[in-house]
Design goal:
The structure is a homodimer. With about 400 residues, the first copy, chain A, is of the alpha/beta class. Helices cover about 40% and strands about 15% of the residues of chain A.
Chain lengths: ~400, ~400
């Protein structure tokens, strides 16, 4: 079956996380991803742990379905080959620091002369405009600058990093949207364009409700720890063994909860009658509920809540996530055979398309694995390719 | 100037956050979003604070650029009007609990009979397949089930919620990608398809590096608090006034850092010589650096680090984010006039397109503001529309 983006060609210069995450999504959905890597070790992420049989599982996760071409873009012949490839690609994707491609003589202004319909997508820390444009950014830095760390964690505690590289990953997602929107536009106009996505901008874009709260109150929202900011009780509690989420989102569920906790008197308690009452007496309610919830195990409580239809859940660690029946039923944990590392567990594809579903067909490539395939398309012979290798161009 | 998705028509049945976030992005990029709301109060988010002059700023943020049509989908005439609209739309987007559209007689199987090229996108908590499919999910619940809470926060501390609704928002982003991929496919085939995106699946998809670590070690990764898991020093420190991030990502930067901290002897200290040494002696180094960093203000340290090119940053609260020069230069904070609420601050558009940029042209609609405009397209007269209103269908 054809995949949704089959036929789309992406020349992918990205390294590490934000860019490779974007090209992974495009590749999962069927685009051909030609990953252009330096002949001197390739993508830095090839050197990031954890390793199996010397292969980076970090890299294997992010680079499935891609082809690898080595190319020394600092040489004239390397640039020439790159420009040949640009002629016949839909998308060029890069996540260098702004200005790097121009220094190589391969900036968008140059590439669009060669291929006016090319979509040039740049994912960077601060974007291609503005006073911070030339600075390097890392996930921890944009999480700090962009506000999310000030909202994560507990009141009066230390600002807390989100436990996944959300700065890189959201930037990857917005970059994919920008590319697909530009490809859509091109169908009408025939013209390509530049897509400029900054990690910092994406952090601002995901704050949304915090900005609304600041705009109205004039005060920066504080971290709310483990609770819903305005629905009560909707929070994390400790049972006798594990933490659980309990979410009694309306008065009906609240009354059911009072029965399960054997505190029918709370229904008439003026501190807890409405959601507004419960929210303003949250500190008291938290302590009172905490004393009761600590008396049974997570499993026992979750069964009781489940029976009465009160939304609740365990807090899963990664081991429990990868074994969760819904996660497995949705094929969100897949295993792929890698020629060196063996069978590798990785996340599946969260975009489920009924007619042209994505798939994971090829393991992450060895460095330069597809040099021949790709250069032969351009008319290079096997012996030309040997010469290019010897010259350090491939 | 035409916007990238100009001409694309989206019939948007979504409420609250995940779905409206997706249609906001499509609308920012130029798609026409017809938000179909119940006549009885509309999108629940219209009732969510904070409020200005009685209008929800939460709703205003998420529903810019959209048109509002009220429609009672439980009536025959309401369904009939909806099906008329389906004939001439590119996308139907909904975030009901799975099965709801089928109960209304408006499931994908029905809609595709009427319009085989329609893209039907469903954003739900657990997805349209699997044993948990029919359950309700909330952001806090998928953050708990999906693993990210187990990775956020401090070792031996409580599992910590990400301070933005990342469960909803990432689901919105993947839904947009699914829609645009399906629209792309349709250009070739003429056929639409169903796009099924689950909040829980998206949580798994953004864990990536944690799954790799689990796959290799067999142990669930622990929360790492405020530090990079493998680069040292790359962490949050407290200065004499505010928290800051310091990121000396390689040996060269480490040596510069030693000089700034006036601890040249650390360069030769066997505990700190290489990144691996520093990582395995992190607890000691953290304390030693902490003692020095607390002696100057954040501003003083950041200037010293900036001068030597050591990546560093403050931890901004929302007030500082919305005033940050790079955020402003990138137009990531915009102000829009709302007819009732006045001038409202909101996040800008993080996808910067050079030729067909997105824009924020219209404030969030009043409930049913576009009833006439949309129904007149279908041939209804003003008096027909009055009758439909009186009958409670609009």
């Amino acid at each position: 079956m054809e995949k949704a983006l089959q036929g789309m060609k992406v020349l992918d210069l990205t390294r590490v996380l934000a860019g490779p995450y974007a090209s992974m999504i495009l590749g999962d959905l069927g685009a051909e991803i030609v990953k252009v890597e330096t002949p001197f070790g390739g993508d830095d992420a090839r050197g990031y742990g954890p390793f199996v049989n010397g292969e980076s599982v970090y890299f294997i996760n992010l680079n499935r379905n891609k082809k690898s071409l080595t190319l020394n873009l600092k040489t004239d012949e390397g640039k020439e080959i790159f420009l040949e490839l640009v002629k016949d690609t839909d998308v060029v994707l890069e996540n260098y620091r702004p200005g790097t491609m121009e220094k190589l003589g391969l900036g968008y202004e140059t590439l669009k002369e060669i291929n006016p319909s090319v979509i040039y997508a740049a994912s960077s820390g601060f974007g291609h405009t503005g006073p911070f444009s030339n600075k390097a950014a890392y996930d921890l830095i944009v999480q700090g600058l962009g506000g999310i760390m000030s909202l994560t964690g507990f009141p009066n505690g230390s600002p807390t990093r989100v436990g996944a590289s959300i700065g890189d990953i959201t930037s990857g997602l917005f970059t994919v949207i920008g590319i697909l929107a530009a490809v859509h536009r091109r169908n009408g106009s025939g013209k390509g364009q530049k897509v400029d996505v900054a990690m910092l901008d994406c952090q601002v874009a995901i704050l949304e409700n915090a900005i609304a709260r600041y705009a109205v109150s004039g005060e920066s929202p504080k971290p709310t720890g483990n609770r819903h900011p305005s629905i009560t009780p909707f929070a994390v509690f400790k049972s006798s063994d594990e933490y659980i989420v309990v979410a009694a989102g309306n008065d009906h569920l609240w009354r059911k909860l009072c029965c399960i906790l054997d505190r029918e008197e709370w229904m008439e308690d003026p501190r807890f009658k409405t959601n507004a009452d419960r929210t303003s007496h949250w500190d008291e309610l938290k302590n009172l509920m905490g004393e009761i919830l600590v008396e049974k195990t997570a499993e026992e409580w979750l069964q009781l809540f489940e029976k009465e239809g009160i939304p609740s859940s365990p807090i899963n660690d990664v081991e429990k996530v990868v074994q969760h029946p819904q996660v497995l039923a949705r094929e969100m944990i897949v295993h792929q055979e890698h020629p060196v590392a063996g069978r590798i567990m990785m996340p599946g594809i969260p975009i489920k398309l009924s007619q042209n579903p994505g798939s994971i067909d090829h393991p992450a490539p060895k460095l330069g694995e597809h040099n021949e395939v790709i250069l032969e398309r351009l008319g290079y012979s096997r012996s030309d390719i040997q010469v290019l290798k010897q010259k350090g161009i491939l």
